[in-house]
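Worked example 2:
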Amino acid sequence: MEFLEERKNSITTKGRQKKQLECESESIAGAVSQRACVYCGARVVLNPITDAMHLVHGPIGCASYTWDIRGSLTSGADLFRTSFSTDLKEEDIIFGGESKLIRAIDQLVEKYHPPAIFVYSTCVVGVIGDDLQAVCKKASKKYGIPVLPVESSGFIGSKVVGYRAACDALLQLITHFEGEKIEKNQGINFLGDFNLGGEAWIIKNYLQEIGVQVNAVFTGDSTVEELRKAPSSCLNIVQCAGSMHYLSNKMAELYGIPSISVSFFGSQSIEQSLRKIADFFDDQQMKAKVEILLELEMKRVKPALDYYRQKLQGKKVAIYVGGAFKAISLISQFKELGMEVVMTGTQTGKKEDYAVIHDLLDEGAVIVDDTNPAELEKFMLAQGVELLAGGVKERLLAYKLGIAFLDHNHDRKEALAGFEGAFNFAQEIFTTVCSPVWQHLDRGEDVFNGKSKLQECS
């Protein structure tokens, strides 16, 4: 298989000898990377804060990346669903956009009275050099609310840099003033859940049932007031490490809050995570409640999962997603259903992430960092893939190749976390992989190792 010479070290096949994958580097020119920009990374982390105002300082196009491309749900305020932009034009780019930003903040505060404003910089703002820090500091003092600059100019890196910019803004939001007392309690913070399809609600219900109070979720269905209470918590549980590892470490440093890694995707991961939380509190009654909860939930979903496992056994899967946490969770979930993961890739994985992915996969599986549509197509056809799990950019490629697709992007509207999510996950895979439409496609004997049609579901 042919690749760009510069890409060879970013691709490996699991075999007897473990190859160190090259990652965390800039995308190769001409490779058509699927990576998103810095602003995108910051926006996906911060946007689910329901009562905050999100103001994009830049051309109007960037403001299109707003609530309707995410499945984050709210139980109360919905200001986050409205997108605001300074709509910079050529004249603003020549003479500077600070005055326009100041006017925008004044108008929005007068009309909406938000408890906090996040002001996002974009590529253009990074080039012309508008001083977001100064404008936001002045506005914050004028109105007595946090007006927080998010340094998310696209030219400074990729989506991962945006995660850190978002976390820096969150740290500013939750920072207590000198002399302000923080009263510790037994509540916890849930980091790295964005309430897609109501997933944060499902997990909060589990935690409530075992006797754990959630002070704040970063950031699904959260409010400014809730996030401000986060420093009083006794534990951070971290699900999406890629976006929240930095914030967790800073909270440990500043507020002495320990953290544990969790995953609520797939029944086995849910069991492990709830038990880890109960072990942290070292509460026998809580541990007993965990076992009761697990028994009841498994009894409810196990018959359906067993049925789907029988239908999906041996089906070949490719995974290409943004973060490594999602990839690792998906591998475990597919294995629970008896499916074979023959290719896995991420846009933002680190060396330690790929080491975990390598150990989870079977021999012969392809592992790739920051791939592109041309490579992805070749890998899927060569590996005989029957299902691709990915995001919005990969959907059309799968359909063009006649391959079933599982949407695991942040714009989905269905919960995939918790036991309810495990059922939804299996049902969605069964529905797409076992659709009768695939039996009407004939792509020739040279595709899928000589097979002209996808395997039927037994």
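The chain has 16 helices and 14 strands. The first strand starts at residue 11 and ends at 13.
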